[in-house]
Design a protein that fits this description.
about 45% helix, alpha/beta, four-stranded parallel β-sheet, Rossmann fold
Length: about 325
């Protein structure tokens, strides 16, 4: 398969995407996390409040809307640990087209159930197979038009709409932190914010158990993370950085942070206590990074990318 060369995502594309997806997504609130004078000034961008409880709906809605009728009729499929699958399934259902998801079999039960409820046909595979399928962009039994869950210009432009909202609600923002799984979120938000307010710092964050982007930044080229381990942070951190995503992230991301699982768990607990926010692991990484002080005094926007976590698991992680 010959892929289009990587190119910058233009501000005009993001602004067009915003109009296109306005009836599908929620313009999520940006709230201040009240922690007192000894802490950085942190605002939370609550993407856990999207209809699928995750930001992926932005990109998915834009990508599905832009498919030509001929491709739409064939149905769509994607690869996901849960949130991209829900996004594409939701957008496909709205457009009246069938959807299949090659899904990582260890995805939380809540994510699997919600994809099924949205009408998606699920094809469970191991993490390794899913990662390989992301590279190959084909899978036996997955029919229709493939929508890549991060390396897709329209998907990324959809995520960029969040950057427009952040600067409208908090024009004084000096730093934005986003979790990295494939890199589509940080690329989209970074593309919007750097176009409008170039001095704003864009930071990516990964868990210590899966931090290929931070390693790639240190080495100056896309790397494989050899010590990858599965954890409750299932929506961020990969086994490697795709070279095409590295090219996309390089111009818009200023630095990469790594946080521990314990710091992530504490950030989930803090959001629940202070703001009554239920966040999944990946959604808490940016707050954990902001609390470390590495991003400065703020104002910092921490993107709470999703809240799709089994409630029993959430209670177990935040109870002690």
């Amino acid at each position: 398969m010959i892929l289009e060369p990587v190119r910058p995502i233009q501000l005009s594309e993001i602004q067009e995407a915003r109009k296109r997806i306005a009836d599908t997504i929620v313009r999520t609130p940006l709230i201040r996390l009240e922690l007192g004078p000894d802490f950085p000034d942190i605002r939370l961008k609550l993407e856990n409040l999207q209809p699928i409880n995750a930001y992926k709906l932005r990109g998915a809605a834009n990508a599905v809307a832009l498919l030509p009728d001929s491709e739409r009729k064939r149905g769509v499929w994607t690869i996901s640990a849960g949130n991209a699958g829900q996004g594409v399934a939701y957008a496909a259902r709205q457009a009246g087209v069938p959807c299949s998801v090659v899904v990582i079999e260890t995805a939380p039960k809540s994510k699997l159930e919600r994809m099924r409820a949205l009408g998606a046909k699920l094809i469970p595979v191991s993490y390794d197979v899913a990662w390989k399928t992301l590279e190959e962009r084909s899978f036996p039994g997955a029919d229709g038009t493939f929508i890549h869950p991060f390396d897709d210009d329209n998907f990324i432009a959809g995520h960029g709409t969040m950057g427009l909202e952040i600067l409208e609600d908090a024009p004084d923002t000096v730093a934005v932190i986003a979790s990295i799984g494939g890199g589509g979120l940080v690329t989209g938000v970074g593309s919007a914010i750097k176009a409008l307010k170039p001095a704003t710092k864009i930071f990516g964050v990964e868990p210590e158990t899966a931090a290929p982007s931070a390693l790639s930044f240190k080495m100056g080229s896309p790397q494989v993370f050899k010590d990858w381990k599965a954890s409750f942070v299932d929506g961020a951190g990969g086994q490697s950085v795709f070279p095409r995503m590295w090219e996309r992230m390089k111009p818009v991301v200023d630095d990469y942070f790594i946080v521990s699982l314990e710091e992530t768990r504490k950030a989930m607990q803090l959001m629940a206590e202070k703001s009554r926010v239920i966040s999944e692991g990946a959604g808490a990484l940016p707050l954990a990074a902001a609390l470390s002080g590495k991003a400065g005094k703020g104002p910092i926007v921490a993107i709470v990318s999703g809240g799709n976590i089994d409630l029993n698991k959430f209670c177990e992680l935040t109870a002690n």
